[in-house]
Design goal:
Layout: E1 29-39, E2 45-55, E3 59-63, H1 70-77, E4 85-90, E5 93-94, H2 99-104, E6 106-109, H3 121-131, H4 138-147, H5 163-175, E7 181-185, H6 193-208, E8 212-217, H7 220-226, E9 229-234, E10 237-243, H8 244-251, E11 253-260, E12 276-279, E13 284-290, H9 298-307, E14 312-319, H10 322-330
Parallel strand pairs: 3-8, 3-9, 6-7, 7-8
Antiparallel strand pairs: 1-2, 1-4, 4-5, 9-10, 11-13, 11-14, 12-13
The protein binds adenosine-5'-diphosphate and magnesium ion (MG).
Length: 342
């Protein structure tokens, strides 16, 4: 079910395609979140004064560990969770004062699999479109179902589908009313490779057609692959928002590993000026450097090694991934937490 829209109020036919009249559209942000806080009835503060703008047409990945507040934030924007303080507008429509207009611009693929078991795929997706007052458009529904490889299942009851197929149905439902903004809350948690591929293709096509996409994940590779911008949320606070490329550039560290011909007992004092560590029982010398620095120091290191007659048989470089960056940001790293499974 698309939450928040009672079936009762959907009977009325609403004209579509109201001309884009005089309302000023922000060229840059489609969603504007200001001072948003949420304290649950339990007294737990899940969101702490969030300020965030989502740009029109971007793919924004909201990264954060379990319990960080991702689903709560999406819930507020979609009108499922009442905020304790703050405001959200979607394309200029306040989610409280102008809920219906705001919500009709949004498609939500929820984290939990919730579907009407007895309906057919075709019926449930078509019905979902109707909930938003959109006139029937079988050709459009057909296209969505085909894009999501659901077409041959269109007459099947949902209860007969596999988990992956059910998730496809949720995506189809979320797209049924041609939303401007699509939320995908942990879309690939537990889905198969095939669906992941289909889904990302659909997401890329949607972005190409101008749809703004916000996805939450704790699979960092997904954010790395897909996102234009990345926000990191931890304990209810947005701790970082950055263009993906910029983030990788800014925080990216590179390591040069030299596989030594003869192991060393310790890093020689003559090399103390370089950021070095020994690994693999002294068989590897690992140099960590900043890719952003004017001089990486690689040349100086190599000439110092030659001078000291330290030879290596091979070398390799690795660049820290977004994953390393993310873990560095959201984990408190006292020794006490070392070795504890996530
Ligand atoms: N209805 C609720 N009542 C009380 N606490 C909740 C409720 N829903 C979520 N929480 C708590 O709020 C925090 C954020 O949850 P959630 O937004 O689901 O995080 P995420 O999606 O990032 O995993 C968690 O600590 C969760 O236990
Ligand atoms: Mg969640």
């Amino acid at each position: 079910m698309e939450p928040g829209l009672a079936r009762a109020r959907t009977a009325a036919y609403m004209p579509v395609a109201a001309p884009l009249l005089l309302r000023e559209k922000s060229m840059t942000s489609i969603i504007s979140i200001n001072g948003l806080s949420k304290t649950y009835a339990s007294g737990f503060q899940a969101l702490k004064s969030i300020n965030l703008d989502i740009k029109r047409g971007e793919i924004f990945a909201l990264l954060g560990p379990n319990g960080a507040g991702k689903t709560t934030l999406i819930g507020v924007i979609c009108g499922i969770v009442n905020p304790t303080a703050g405001t959200v507008t979607v394309d200029g429509h306040d989610i409280a004062g102008d809920y219906r207009a705001a919500r009709s611009l949004i498609g939500l693929v929820p984290q939990e699999l919730t579907t009407d078991a007895f309906e057919t795929v075709w019926a449930t997706v078509s019905f979902s479109r109707g909930l938003f007052g959109k006139p029937k458009n079988p050709a459009y529904i057909e296209k969505i179902l085909k894009d999501l490889s659901l077409w041959d299942k269109k007459d099947n009851k949902i209860m007969t589908l596999s988990g992956g197929m059910k998730r496809r149905v949720l995506i189809a439902k979320a797209l049924s009313h041609e939303p401007q903004v699509l939320f995908l809350d942990e879309p690939t948690a537990g889905v198969d490779v095939e669906l992941r591929k289909d889904m990302w293709q659909v997401v890329r096509d949607l972005r190409a057609s101008g749809v703004t996409i916000i996805l939450t994940t704790h699979y960092i590779e997904e954010a790395e692959d897909m996102a234009d911008r990345i926000g990191v949320i931890s304990k209810g606070e947005i701790i970082l928002v950055e263009n993906k490329a910029e983030l990788m550039r800014k925080l990216g560290k590179k390591q040069l590993t030299l596989h030594l011909q003869k192991p060393l007992d310790a890093v020689p004092a003559e090399l103390a000026a370089h950021n070095l560590a020994l690994a693999d029982d002294g068989n590897e010398l690992v140099f960590t450097y900043d890719t952003n620095a004017e001089r990486t120091g690689v040349t100086a290191l190599l000439s110092d090694l030659a001078r000291l007659n330290i030879r290596f048989r091979d070398l390799q470089t690795t660049q820290s991934s977004l994953e390393d960056i993310f873990i560095g940001l959201v984990t408190d790293r006292p020794a006490a937490s070392a070795g504890v499974a996530p």
